[in-house]
Structure formats: C-alpha cells, structure tokens
C-alpha cells in the first residue's frame, strides 16, 4: 500500500508543480491548489506522533493532502472524513484514492462545508470525536469553520490550518483568523512557516 500511495503522491506533486509554474492551462475550478510537500510531511508526522485515529478535513480538492494523512492514519487503523463541494475534484480524488488503495480509509462528504459541519454539531457521536483536523477551504469563512469544529475535537486534539502566510491575497483574512484563535481560552496555537504557513492549534481542557 505504501508504494501505491507514494506513486500517486508523486504524480500529483508533478501536476501541482506544472500548475503553479503556469506550464499547463487549467480552468480555475479544476486547479489542485494543493498544500506543499513539506506541509504534507508535517501533517503525516503529527498524525504519527498523536497516534490519531479520527481525522476531519475541510477542503479535500483532488486528495493530495488527504493521501499524506491517510499514509499515516492507516497504521493506526484510523479513518478520515473529508469535505469537498466541487464534483470534478471529488471524481479525481476518488480515482486517486482507488489508485492508492486507501478508499476504505476515507469517507467523502460532498457539499457545503458550513452545512455539513452544522449537521455534525447536531449529532452526539461527533462531539469531541476528531483528534486531528485539517482546514484548507475558503478563507473568508475560516473563523466560522474553526468555531464549528472546536466542539468536535477531542481534548489534546490538533487543528492545522493552511495558508496562514501565503498567498498574499489571503493575508488579511488569515491575520484575523490567528487573532481570533489567540482569544479562545481553551486552545494553544503557534504559526509555523512550513509550506504556505500553518497555524497549528491544540485543544486544551
């Protein structure tokens, strides 16, 4: 399985590099907009350190970040629930998960993240359920996502948010996000310069 995962990751990395270099012309709604490889490696490492078993991802795209996390969480017999709205990206992600032989590990929730998170908050089973969360969705709603996700996270659970530092166009939204988190009494958070900047937050008692 490991070989299959890394083969798919390598193909996606090559595609992402081409997109970022503008060497291929990809419609805006089909661009990967993937995390960096370095971010994938740190996500993978955190999951291993935490021995995480239940992960939530908000913003799957074509599944590049999901695969980095799946490579680690499968060793713990863990599961990933990932949210994505774009049907074209969902189709590509399913193919990537199948090629990497991790489809059984990943459940895709198709639709608006805000609506799906509201539904999770109404279900008792998801209260303090997730021990690892990745937020990599629309930045204008990132504060609302965090507030809805926090009750779903276990004490000691980790929330990682991508694009804290880059691209520049997100900077104001992400500054507000970082300030918002720092005002929440039962979390501790740091900003890491890895990749496009990661806010790494732990839920305290």
Automatic annotation (TrEMBL):
This is O-methyltransferase MdmC protein. Its EC number is 2.1.1.144. GO terms for biological process: methylation. The keyword Methyltransferase applies. SUPFAM superfamilies: S-adenosyl-L-methionine-dependent methyltransferases. InterPro entries: Cation-dep_OMT, SAM-dependent_MTases_sf, SAM_O-MeTrfase. PROSITE patterns: SAM_OMT_I. Gene3D superfamilies: Vaccinia Virus protein VP39. Pfam families: Methyltransf_3. GO terms for molecular function: O-methyltransferase activity; trans-aconitate 2-methyltransferase activity. Keywords: Methyltransferase, S-adenosyl-L-methionine, Transferase. The keyword Transferase applies.
């Amino acid at each position: 399985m490991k070989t299959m995962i890394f083969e798919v990751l390598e193909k996606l990395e090559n595609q992402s590099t081409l997109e970022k270099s503008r060497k291929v012309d990809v419609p805006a709604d089909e661009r990967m907009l993937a995390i960096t490889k370095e971010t994938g490696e740190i996500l993978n490492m955190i999951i291993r350190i935490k021995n995480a078993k239940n992960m939530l991802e908000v913003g799957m795209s074509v599944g590049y970040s999901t695969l980095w996390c799946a490579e680690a969480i499968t060793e713990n017999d863990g599961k990933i629930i990932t949210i994505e709205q774009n049907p074209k990206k969902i189709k590509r992600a399913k193919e990537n998960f199948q090629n990497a032989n991790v489809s059984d590990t990943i459940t895709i929730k198709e639709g608006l993240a805000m609506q799906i998170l509201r539904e999770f908050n109404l279900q008792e089973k998801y209260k303090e359920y997730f021990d690892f969360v990745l937020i990599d969705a629309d930045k204008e709603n990132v504060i609302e996502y965090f507030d809805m996700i926090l009750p779903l996270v276990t004490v000691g659970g980790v929330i990682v948010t991508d694009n804290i530092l880059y691209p520049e166009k997100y900077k104001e939204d992400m500054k507000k996000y970082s300030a918002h988190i720092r005002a929440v009494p039962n979390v501790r958070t740091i900003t890491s310069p890895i990749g496009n900047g990661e806010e790494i937050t732990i839920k305290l008692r």
